[in-house]
């Protein structure tokens, strides 16, 4: 692995540091779609900005993981933390914030072992 966290040609990623990109990619699409829907439905600029920001971070992380770049794990953990921390205060306000809280916690739980392995 080189200093940028990318897997060199012919090198296999260490199983404890590579995770599937699919949770990050799916959450990225969901965040972008949700932020856009929130803006269209209620003209909420914060929903649009937050959805696009976190969604793009998740999509970048998923793309990085698909390309063998371990920095995608850090990106997925960061996006999960941002989404979790921003959703938890609104968890009782309805099903959407509750689902965002659950999905971000699940994503963090999924990517944490690989993130921890990268830190050591």
Automatic annotation (TrEMBL):
GO terms for cellular component: membrane. Gene3D superfamilies: Transmembrane protein 14-like. It is found in: Membrane. Keywords: Membrane, Transmembrane, Transmembrane helix. It holds the Pfam family Tmemb_14. InterPro entries: TMEM14 (IPR005349), TMEM14_sf (IPR044890). The chain crosses the membrane at residues 21-40, 46-65, 94-112. Belongs to the TMEM14 family. This is Uncharacterized protein. It comes from Serendipita indica (strain DSM 11827) (Root endophyte fungus).
